[in-house]
Here is the input.
Amino acid sequence: MKKLVLSLTLIAGLSTAVNAQKGGAVRKLSIGADIGLPTDNGSKNLMLAGGSVYYEHPVAKSVNLTGSIGYLSLFSTSKGNQGNIGFTSLKVGGKYYFAGNFYGAGEVGATIQREGGRGFFAITPSLGTSFSITDKSSLDLGLRYENWSKDGNSFGFVGLRAAYAFGS
Here is the structure.
C-alpha cells in the first residue's frame, strides 16, 4: 500500500512540473477503472475491480458538484475460489481543488448488491490529482476509502481510480 501511495504522489508531482493544468473547477465527464483492497479482518484474499463514470459540474472557482455511477466486482485472489459478487453504486457529492490540480472529494449514496438486491449506505472520502493531456481532456488519479454500511454492519476498502476525463 505504501508503494501505491508513493507512486501516486510521484506521478502527481511529475504531472504538475511537466504539464500544469489551469487550476480550479471545470465541467467534465470521466470514465475510469477502479481497483480496491478490503480493509476488514479476514479479507486478505479478496479484491475489488470494476469501472465508473463520474460527472463534475462547477459551482464556484474551486468547487464542483459530483455524481457517479459505478460497478465493482468482489472476488477472491486465492486458487480454487471462483465466483464473485457484483455491486452497483450511485453517489453524489462535492470536489474541492485546493492546489491547482490536486483535490479532495467526498460522496454519499447507495450501493446495491447485484445478487439479492441488498442495499447499503455508501460514504467515500478521496484525494487525487487531475492533469491535462490536451486542452479539453485530462487524466485523473484518485485514492479513496469507501465504506458500505447497513444495520450496524459495514464493509470498507481502499481504492484507486485511474480515469480519462473529457471537458473544458
Q: What stands out?
A: The domain at 2-21+31-167 is CATH 2.40.160.20 (Porin). The CA atoms of residues 1 and 146 lie 16 Å apart. Strands lie at 28-38, 46-60, 63-76, 84-99, 102-113, 119-134, 137-150, 153-167. The longest helix spans residues 2-18.
